[in-house]
Amino acid sequence: MKRLEGKVAVVTGGSRDIGRAVSVKLAKEGAKVCVNYCNNEAKALETLDMIKEVGGEAILFKADVTKADEVAAMFAAAAKAFGGRIDILVNNAGGILGRKTIEEQDEKWFYDLIDLNFKSCWLCTRDVLAYMKDGGSIVNISSQAARDGGGAGSSIYACSKAAVLCHTRAMAKELGPRGVRVNAVCPGMINTYFHDTFTKPEGRAALHRSAPLRREGEAPEVADLVCYLASDESSYITGNGVDINGGCLFS
To answer: Is 228 annotated in the active site?
Structure first.
């Protein structure tokens, strides 16, 4: 039997990279998946095709998960499509929006990053609970930056991801009596659009030389960890921030 047979999952930011890999993995393991995307419908459709290729079932839903009305509509649609309940939430939507030193940062920059990385997680966690029965699982995508302050120009990104990690622990305490587990994954350098766009090649090369495993991670490796935390195999794990960084940082 597949690990997530009969479960219903919502994955935010599921159109590419880690979100795509998570969506496909959960579907392959038997979950019915609502794949959220914000802008790139073509990429989202590619994710949907990949889910179909592994024999999974999914719908797409366009929503800006920093906006409460769109979040509410997303969960209502997912529940309507898949029997009225949601068992798994993966708060993956987020980003860095570029790198700026503190002198270059303005208030809009600050709030855009907090909204994208933390407000989205807070909104989705709050609203999914109307559909999540006892025993559900929430997995948040934090970052190694939440542990070490991030690389150059990523201070507010790191702070927003640290907020995700703290919220994970708070919700683990609050929702534990309902049997709802809340965990976070803290990826290091993963081979994604994020680093293709915002990390210099020499920085990636330096990691290849210094990391104990001598390489970057891949999105499917993160998806494997998320699937484990979403499944009953991790039934006594909650409030954790699980590192996946090839040994670059221990916590």
So the answer is: no
